[in-house]
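Hello,

Following up on my earlier ticket. Below are the two sequence lines again, exactly as submitted.
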Amino acid sequence: MTGLEITGLTLELNGRRILDGVDVSAPAGQVTGLAGESGSGKTMTGLAVMGLQPAGSKVGGTVSYDDGEVQVADLLSLRPGALNRMRARRIAMVFQDPSSSLQPMLSIGAQLTDHVRHHLGLSRQAARTRAVELLERVQVPSPEAALKRYPHQFSGGQLQRIAFAIAIACEPKVLIADEPTTALDVTVQAGVLRLLRGLTDDLGLAVLLVTHDLGVMSAVADTVAVMRHGVVVEHGSRYQVIREPRTEYARELVESLPHTPPPGTGEPE
Amino acid sequence: MTAVPLRRRRAPSLPVAWRRPAALAGALVLLAWVVVALIVPLLPLEDPLRQSVGAAFQAPSAAHLFGTDQLGRDVLSRTLWGVRSSLPLAVALVAGSLVIGSVLGALAGYLGGVVDEVIMRVADLVFAFPTIILAMVVAAALGPSLVNAVIALLIVSWPNYARVMRALVLGARGQEYVIAGRLLGAGPLTSLRRDVLPNVSAPMLVLAMLDFGNQILLLAGLSFLGLGAVPPTPEWGSMVADGVVQFSSWWLATFPGLAIFSVVVAFNLIGDSLRDALDPRTAGAVQGSSI
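Thanks for your patience. The regenerated structure is below:
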C-alpha cells in the first residue's frame, strides 16, 4: 500500500503514556480522519510522525512511508538529516491557526519559495513561477500581488489556503492537517475543506486529517479513526463509524454532536 | 472571500523610516553632529586644549559662549571637538555589544543545553561584578586608552544583550511558525535566522538605542578614572564628570550633557521609527492612523 502506515505508535512524556500504541493507515488518494476528544493524543500523533514530539519524550512503534518512489520502513528511526529531507519534500503539515503558523515578518512570496528553492533546487525565477501557480491552485485572488504581501494583510481563510500552498509546494505525498478548519469562520470552512478534498484527489495525497469536529469529518474523510486515551478505538469507513459505530465510545462521540435536522424539516426560526 | 483591502500597507523598507517626522528630526541631529565632527578644525573656535588659568571658571559670555572650565579652556570648543571621540566610540560600543550579545544570546536560547549553560554562566560571571569595577579592572589591565576602554566596556555590556536576546528567543522558538518552518526542512541555524531573529529584533533595537546614553556615561566614568579618554582630549563624558564636581559652575556639565542628551534622543527617535519600519505590520502606517 502506498501512503503512511502507523503501527503501534507510543509516546511517553515524563513517565506518562500519551500514545499507547496507535495504529492508523493513511492510504494515498484518501483522507483519513483522526477524531477524538481533547487530550486523546490526536495532535501528538501528527507531531510524532513528523519527528517533532516534545523534548524529553520517548517514542516507540513504527511509521512506514511509501510513495511508490521512495520507501522508508520507519520514519522514527531516521537520522535528523534524513528526516529533514523528508519534510516538505515527502511529508508536509498544515496547522490549526494560519495567523500563527505563517511567519509574520516574511512576505508570502518568500514563504512560498524558500523551501522550494532549497528542496527542489529551483532558481529564484522558477520558484516564483511555481509560487504563482500554487496560489492559483489554492484559489488565492491576484497571486502576483499576493506574493509581495504579508500574512497580516490576508483574512484567515486566505491564509489557510496559502498555508496549503506552502505545504504542497514541494509535491509531498503525505499531508498531515491538524485541525485545519477549527480556527476559521464556519462560512470559510467549507471552502477550505473542498480545497483539501480537491488536493487529495488531484495530487493523490495521503491526508491525515486531525480534528475533533465530526461534522468536518463526515464532509471530507474517507475513513475515520476514533482515538481515546492514546489508542485508536475504532477505525472504519466514514459511513460505518458515523452511522453504525461499533464501540460505545464512538457512539457517544457521534451522539454528542448537536442534533441538526435536515434542511426543510426543522422548526422555523 | 477576498483579501482584506482596508489598509494596503507598504512592504517594509528603510526609506519609509525617513518619512516619519520623528525619524527625520533624529537623523538631522545626528547628521549635524557628523558635519560638526568633520568641519570642526575649520570653525573659528579657540584651541580646545589651550589653557589660561587666569580665565578659569568664567560664566558664559560673548567671548566664551559656553564659558570656560577649571583650566580656562573654552567649553564651546571642547564640546564641539568632543563629538569626534564620543560619537564614534558610543556607536562602536553599542553596535559591538548588540552584535556580540545578540549572537551569543540567540545561540544560547535556541540551541539550549550545553551551549546555553556555557554562555549564560560566563554572562553570570560578568554580572557578578559591579559593571564599572569590572570595566576598570579590564581597562587597567589593558592600559589606558580609548580603544581599550571600549574593549573593556564591550566585555561588561554584552551580557545585558545576551540575557534579553535569550529570553526573546526562548519565547519565539515555541511559536507555531517556527515549528512550521522546521517542518518545511529548515535546520536550526536557518530557522534561527529566518524565523526567529526577525521577530525578536524590535525589542533588541530599542534596547540598543536606550543603551546609548548609558554607554557614553560609562565611558565617561572610565575617562574620569583616567582609564578612558586621556586628558586633555576633549570627550563629553569626561567633561560632564569634571563638571559635576563644580557646583557653582553649572555650564561645565550642562553643555556637554546637552550634547549627550541630543545624541541619545536622536538615536531613540531613529530606533523607534526603524522598529516600526522594519515590521510589516506597522510599516507605512503614518502617525495618527490606527495601530
